[in-house]
Write a structure and sequence with these properties.
Pfam families: Guanylate_cyc. This is Adenylate cyclase. There is one protein chain. The chain is of the alpha+beta class. It contains eight helices and eight strands. Strands 1, 2, 3, 4, 5, 6, 7 and 8 form an eight-stranded mixed β-sheet that branches. Helix 1 packs across helix 2. The longest helix is centred in the last third of the chain and has 26 residues.
Length: 283
Amino acid sequence: MQRAKRRLAAVMCADVAHYSRLMERDEDGTLSRLRAYRSIMSGLTERHNGRIVNTWGDAVIIEFSSVVEAVQCAVDIQNELAHKNAELPETEKMEFRIGINLGDLMVEGDDIYGDGVNVAARLQELAPRGGIMLSQSVFDQVRSKLALGFDALGQKTFKNVSEPVGTYSVRLGGRNAPEAAQPVPDGASGKSDNDSPYGMRDANVAKTAKGGFEQARDWFKRQPRRVRSCVFMIGFFFVLNILTSGLSSLWFYWPSLPFIVALIWHLMMSRNEKAVPAPRTTD
């Protein structure tokens, strides 16, 4: 039996957020817009020396020999599509989620397989609408080569992938730049308050809190309505508890119990759905 060929490459997986909802609202318009957006993606892929491996439904798999070109192509795609979407009503916007991984691929003809593809597909599922998610291997290659900003989102464990994967989001929409250096104030010492241990600690705490809030907000936005409703009701009872009784008497979990149970059930069902292996690519 002939062994499959292997090569190291960057893989981009992209799909349309809420595609079923768009199709339900307007099939003809959605298909027409999908074809137009894919044409844009095809042109940008060619410009960055990529190869479209496969498309099925609303999804696209693209292979790049250069990880830098892969990330720059993804940024160009999201920026161009955001410009197109800005001209549309909110209900007609077509936003792609993109995941990029650098890994070892199994090659059979024009198709590619293996963990390198699977991780890219899982990263795409984590990406927000119009966003880009990178694996640790991609981030390590591009962080000093592209004038982009990144947010570390921690280690993620994926189904059928043996090791946890470090994840990073690319800053887009006005945040697409590295962290700016803080100006040095005038004065004899030439030091700012952040140079002291307390100032550095406060700055780190504030940055961590901001990152945690943004991550929680993005997670909340990606959840289905039933999950958001459960979270909202739990939060409502918690705030009501604090306003009426303070922290000395916590009772909010009693009226929240049905919503907590429903939330756990919905999250478990969602996790089981995502555990289904990524589709195999075909001609």
